[in-house]
Amino acid sequence: MLNANDFPPLPSQRARRRTGAQGRAHTSVRARVNGVAASINDLPDELWIEILDYVPALDLKDFQLPTLANLSRVNKRINSLVIERLYAGYNSFFCEPYLFLRTVMAKPWLAENVRSMQISYGPRVHEDRKRYTPSVTDRRTIKDSLKAMDIPGWKAWATDCNDDEVERELLYATILMYTPNITELIIDDGELSYRIPKWLDILRWTVSGGRLGHVHRFLQLKTLRIDIGYLKLRHLAPIFKLPGLNTVSLTGLVDIGRVERGKPDALRRLLPIGTCLVENFSVHKAFVDDRILDVLLQCFRSLKHFEFSHTDELYPEDRDARERTSFSNLNRSLGRHRLTLVGLSLHDIIIDNYYHKSPGLMGDLSQFKKLTHLEISSNTLVHVHDSSPTISAENLPPSITSLVVFLTTDEREHNCLEALIHLASQSRHVLPLLKEVRIEVEDRFAKLKKYDWERLRRLWADVDVALVVKIEDEDEDDGDDDEDFVWHGSVRNDVDEDTESEVESDEESLYSS
Predict the structure, then answer these.
(1) Rounded mean pLDDT, 69-98
(2) Residue 383 included in any domain
C-alpha cells in the first residue's frame, strides 16, 4: 500500500476524488480482477502527459499518429489530454488535406491547436495516393465555411477546393487560413498550374493591408523554411514583412536578376531598408547575385544569426560571368549588422573542382564586435593555394568563442591546417575568448585520418583552446558503420551510430473526425 504522506495525490487526482465522492452513492463498486481494481483510467493526468511525450504524432522514425488517434477515442478525459497533440501539426506526407481541412472548418477549436505545417507540392508529389472523394455534406461544409470567411471570390475558391482534381497546394493554403496559432511553416516548393502559390498569395494580402475577409494576420508565425523550386526573391518579398516572423530559411535559391546601381528598383521597393524584423536568416545551397543579396541583407533591421552556403551546382547555364557571389562583397553587405550579429556561417560547397568558381575570401571580420560563433570554409578564410598560407588573428572577431573550419575534397585546402598552426600562435592575446576550434573534413580518401592531429591539439591546448576534428567519408552506401570519424584530443569515437530505419506508415485518414 502507498503511504499517502510520502506519496500525496497529484492535483488532477484530488479533483477527480472530489467529483467521485459526490456521486459515489449512485455508483456501483468496480469489479475486481485478480484483486486489482486499477485500470488505464486511474492514471493521473500528470503521468499521462509524461507518457505522451514518448508518443510523437508526426515523426518519420517513430510514427505514432494512429496510436494517438486510438487513445483519443478511449474516453472524454483521455481525449482532452491527447487532442492537443493529435492536432498540433499537419504534415502532407501523412495527412489527407481535404479531410483535415473539413475538420478544422467544422471544429475551429481543433484548428486552434495547430502549431506547425509541413507541406510539399508539385508534379508527382503524393501522386501515388488515392484522393478522397468529398460527399455532398463535405462540399457544403467547405462552401459554407468559405462564405462565412468572406474572402474575395469565395465561390470560385470553394468550387476549386471541391473539385476532384484540385491542386493540393490550394487545400494547404486554405488550411492555413483556418489555423490562427500556427508558429512554424515548412514548405517544399514545386511547379504548379498557376504562377504564384496560393499560400504566398494569402501572405501577400495579409501584409499589404488588403481586405481578405476574416482571415487571421499570421501574428503567431515565428519560423518559415522553404525548399525553393521555382520561386524568386521578388515572389518571396511578402514573407519579410510578417510582423512576428523571427527565423527564415531558404534552400536552393537561384536569383541573378539585375539591380541597377544607384537607382531604386522593383526589388528594393519590395524590400525597403531596415523594415524586416527577422533575426535569424539562412540561405542554403544557393547562388544569388551580389547586388540582389545586398538588397536582401539591407532590408533586415538587425540580424543576429546569418548562414549562407554557396554552390555552383545550381548555376544557370546562360549565366553572366559578372553575376556571381563574392564573399568580400557579402562582408560589406553585412556591415549593417556588425553590432548585432552573434553567429555567422559561410560555406562554399564544391561539386566539381574543375568548373568551380570560388566566392573568394571573406576578408576582415574584426568589425563584428559581438560575433561569438563563426563557421567558414577554408578557401574563404585563407589563400589555400599558397604554399604557406596564414590566418591573421586580427582579421577575426575579438569576441569569438568557437571557430568551425570546413575542408573539402580539394587536397590543396589541406594547407589550411598549417594556417591554423599559425593562428594558434597568435590567438592567446588577440582572441582571448576563443574556447574551441572544430575542423570538419569531407575527405574522399580519408587521408587526413593519418594527419598528426596530436601535434595540432598540443599547440591549441597551450593556449587553452579545445580541438575537435570530424572527418566524413563520402561513400555512405558501403554498409560500413564507420561513416564518420571524430577525434577529440587523444580519443576516437564513431559517430552517427543511429541506424534505425524509417518506419513507413499506412496513409490512413486520421483527421476525418
Answers:
(1) 80
(2) yes
In a domain, 428, yes or no: yes
Q: Is residue 481 helix, strand or coil?
A: coil
Beta bridge partners of 186: 118, 225
For residue 366, give Cα distances in angstroms to 287, 305, 332, 432: 26, 16, 12, 14
Burial group, residue 3, by CB count within 10 angstroms (0-12, 13-18, 19+)? exposed
What's the domain count of the chain?
2
Q: What single string gives the DSSP state of each residue in 68-136?
A: HHHHTTT-HHHHHHHHHHHTSEEETTTS-HHHHHHHHHH-HHHHTT--EEEEE-STTTTTTSPPP---H
CB count within 10 Å of CB 281 equals 22
pLDDT tens digits for range 275-320? 999 999 999 998 888 888 999 999 999 999 999 988 876 555 544 5
pLDDT at 209: 80
CA dihedral 41, 43, 44, 45 (to 10 degrees): -70
Confidence at residue 317, expressed as pLDDT on a 0 to 100 scale: 56
Q: Are strands 116-120 and 184-188 parallel, antiparallel or unpaired?
A: parallel
- Let me know the angle formed at the C-alpha of 163 by 158 and 164, rounded to the nearest 5 degrees: 150
Structural domain boundaries enclosing 371: 367-496
Closest CA to 239 of 200, 268, 209: 200
DSSP state of 165: T
Task: Find all residues with CB under 8 Å of 15, minimum gap 6, and list them.
Answer: none
Higher per-residue confidence, 356 vs 78:
78
Element (H, E) at 43: none
> What gap in Å lies between CA 456 and CA 489, rounded to an integer?
9
Cell of residue 436, nine digits: 574551441
All cell numbers assigned to 152: 474575395
Question: What is the helix (H) or strand (E) element at residue 250, kind and residue range?
Answer: strand 247-251
Q: Which long-range contacts (CB under 8 A, 24 or more apart) does 495-498 make?
A: 495/470
Residue 36 is classified by DSSP as B
What pTM was computed for the model?
A: 0.80
Residue 429 is assigned to a structural domain of this protein: yes
Number of residues in the chain: 513
pLDDT digits (tens, 9 = 90+) for 10-68: 665 566 655 555 554 444 444 445 555 566 777 776 777 777 777 766 665 655 667 77
Q: What is the DSSP letter of 182?
A: -
Read off the pLDDT of residues 399-412 as tens digits, 9 standing for 90 and up. Answer: 999 999 988 766 66
- Across the strands, what pairs with 184? 116, 223
Q: Answer yes or no: is pLDDT of 387 > 60.
A: yes
pLDDT-based confidence at residue 133 (cuts at 50, 70, 90): very high
Instruction: Decide: 263 and 287 in contact? Cβ < 8 Å.
Output: no
**Structure-derived torsion over alpha carbons of residues 241, 110, 90, 284, reported in degrees to the nearest 10:** 20
Report yes or no on 457 lying in a domain: yes
